[in-house]
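Thread: "does anyone have the structure for this chain?"

Original post by V.I.:
We have the sequence but no experimental structure in hand. Need at least a predicted one for the grant figures.
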Amino acid sequence: MDYDKKYGWNKDKESHIVLHMSEELGEISRRILRLEGYKTEKFKRAELAEELVDLLYLTLKLANKFDIDMEKEWYAAFERYEKKSSRK
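Reply from O.Q.:
Generated one for you, tokens below.
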């Protein structure tokens, strides 16, 4: 991604990207815990949106590292989902 090149982030190791993905998922979890009342901080939909976008960005970044066509894989996934009769 050009954005990554601009800031030198294109040199990130794959393992570091996955580590950052894990961190973002933790932040998403914290926002959901707030929504459910488990955490005392107030839930803010905008914060959840930011964390989801961060995770999506990192997912796309990792896919690019491995030259994976995410659009193609997205449609292939839904073809697989349609063939499943249940989520067992």
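V.I.: this helps a lot. The mean pLDDT is 91.
O.Q.: and Helices lie at 2-7, 14-35, 45-65, 70-83.
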